[in-house]
Write a structure and sequence with these properties.
The chain has 1 helix and 9 strands; from the N terminus they run αβββββββββ. By secondary structure, it is an alpha+beta fold. The protein has 2 domains: 30 residues; 102 residues, Immunoglobulin-like (Sandwich). The strands form 3 sheets. It has a 4-stranded antiparallel sheet with strand order 3-4-9-8, with no helix packed on it. A 3-stranded antiparallel sheet has the order 5-6-7, with no helix packed on it. Strands 1-2 form a two-stranded antiparallel sheet. It is flat, with a radius of gyration of 23 Å. This is Hsp20/alpha crystallin family protein. Pfam families: HSP20. Belongs to the small heat shock protein (HSP20) family.
Length: 148
Amino acid sequence: MLLERREDFFRPFRELQREIDRLFEDFFTPSLRRSADVYRFTPDIDVYETEKELVIEAEIPGMDRKDITVKVEDNVLKISGEKKLEREHKDRNYRVFERSYGKFERCMVLPDYVDTEKIKAKYENGVLTITIPKREEVKAKVVDVKVE
């Protein structure tokens, strides 16, 4: 009898834990956003910094470079485009359809130490690489300090 009461006591906590796990799982899968039974395409990005530049890499497979737009406005980098759904094959009976399509836009505020006038972008093998050099006056200078 005591064991049954204990199980009843912990049941809501286990249900809550399952719901929290589901929410985190949904949150940490950003490339597929489900809305109205249609998957919307959102490119995943990596951002890293070297001594001389800031680099943004965006995974945008299956697109033509003319369908991708890169702009900087008020120090905000905007990557946008549209991955078109080309399902003209009426003779195909799809069992699974997981590839995502649609308009997308990714925006990011750029740090003030980059030179947006010298930005470069290259699209190759489904990856858009944007390189933004750092301004000369803010590049890190390395000074060796003698420890006594």
